[in-house]
Amino acid sequence: MMIPIDPGTQSERDNYKLLTGSIIPRPIAWVTTLTDNGKVNAAPFSYFNIVTADPPMISVSVQRKQAQLKDTARNAIREGEFVVHIGDESSIEKLNQTAANLPPDQSEVEHASLTAIPSDIVRVPGIAEAKIRMECVLERSIPLGGTEAAPSTDLLIGRVVRFHVDESVLDHGRILSDVLKPVSRLAGSIYSRLGETFSLERPE
Q1: Do residues 62 and 153 lie in contact, with contact meaning Cβ atoms separated by under 8 Å?
Q2: Rounded Cα gap, residues 120 and 164, in angstroms
């Protein structure tokens, strides 16, 4: 028997639990931005996906905290650029460390003992330990949710201006997922490895 649930009668936390437990697995955007004092901020976000391939654009949704912009959204909007990395099994421990709630003037990259690497196009450095990173310029920032005066979310749409891909995971323009070993987010503090895959031909 299906149980109907009206999201309007539930708390934000109850709706969050249904969404994050249902929409799984979710890819993780590991985002770096520049603070106003030049430090490199890093944080993971699982509200992340492709928008379009022409030109290449990706989206990252950053939930606000008590109606205040998080550092990632504030920095990306101010600087107009950010870098998105794909977390994998080899970097997941350090990725998790960058979720720490540090003050805005401190660097999660330094906190997690990661290596900042200069980008080609944007001013924001990337993380050398990641096998894939995408330099992005901010195409659009859209405040959503909450109320008009106090949105609950900032949807960042980034246009990719440079891909950096480790040669070990690239084969004639295609990403070798079994070599990349990406990590995804489930509910709560649970993550997932890629696991078994299968193929289905798309019907004509």
Answers
A1: yes
A2: 10
